[in-house]
Design a protein that fits this description.
1% strand; Farnesyl Diphosphate Synthase; two-stranded parallel sheet
């Protein structure tokens, strides 16, 4: 069954349970956080698999290089699927796997809707961000909303969980944006906010090659990197008040992305910027240190 068929509400194949389906999505993704999720108790693990599978499905739609109208249609189908889930009639493998998690952990429909709205912002063949408020909204939708779903599964108090989701979501997504500036420009996507660019004399955001060469761009990147670094500090302070085992997957993500931000900052923001990441060995160390011990 392909993603389009799933988005259209096709039934779960009889040979594959919803639980097996979402675990398969996680395994096939090759995510470094699989082992952190594996350490969770069975019910929480199943819930996180389902949340991850949902996020993966809608993210794949947004990243598809295909027709924009078709992508928006498929995301609209996901909105309908989430509505059916909360109406007690889940019809897809992922929403069926999500049903017990929604009931057990009180996952909010608006958080799933926010993730889909974030993917709709990404679905355009051309992406521009008007200002810092829109960038904050984008980060909230594509990252912090996922955190709000996850922290409920972890069992955190709603107020603490939402604060952690905001800080860590902002930190992770800003790191992603800074890591992928040049690569995104090749796809006509620019997530650096236009108001900050203008403040550094970068006014023509249609000419992305010119944006990448502009002498003011490194300063823009530095400003966003400073915000991300502060959010990492805030997230760590919140995590320090939580049960370590409960937030283990969040700790792993924080450690991986904080290291990426440090590498980006040390390399500097002058172009051309190389897409920095962690080596397989470094990721393995994080998995062992923060996911297994």
């Amino acid at each position: 069954m392909n993603k389009a068929e799933q988005s259209m509400g096709m039934e779960t194949p009889p040979q594959a349970s919803p639980e097996a389906h979402v675990e398969g999505v996680v395994r096939e993704s090759g995510t470094s956080f699989f082992w952190a999720m594996r350490r969770l108790p069975p019910e929480k693990r199943a819930a996180m698999y389902a949340i991850y599978a949902f996020c993966r499905e809608v993210d794949d739609i947004a990243d598809d290089p295909g027709d924009e109208a078709e992508k928006r249609f498929r995301l609209g189908q996901w909105r309908a699927d989430i509505q059916r889930l909360y109406g007690g009639e889940p019809r897809t493998p992922v929403t069926r796997a999500l049903e017990p998690a929604v009931e057990r952990y009180g996952l909010r429909q608006e958080d799933f809707g926010a993730v889909i709205a974030g993917m709709e912002m990404d679905a355009g063949n051309r992406v521009r961000i008007a200002d810092m408020d829109e960038l904050t909204l984008y980060c909230d939708r594509v990252a912090s909303a996922v955190g709000r779903l996850s922290t409920r599964v972890f069992g955190l108090d709603a107020g603490i969980g939402d604060k952690l989701a905001f800080a860590q979501g902002q930190a992770l997504q800003l790191t992603n944006i800074l890591r992928d500036v040049d690569e995104d420009a090749g796809r006509d996507r620019l997530y650096l906010p236009a108001d900050v660019l203008r403040a550094h004399d970068i006014t023509d955001t249609d000419d992305l090659a010119g944006v990448l060469r502009h002498p003011g761009l490194p300063r823009v990147c530095e400003l966003l990197a400073d915000i991300a670094a502060r959010r990492f500090v805030e997230a760590r302070a919140i995590i320090a008040t939580c049960d370590r085992d409960a937030v283990r997957p969040a700790v792993m993500m924080l450690e991986v992305y904080d290291r990426i931000l440090v590498k980006l900052t040390r390399a500097g923001w002058e172009g051309p910027r190389r897409r920095h990441g962690l080596s397989a060995l470094a990721k393995l160390w994080v998995v062992i240190r923060y996911g297994l011990l």
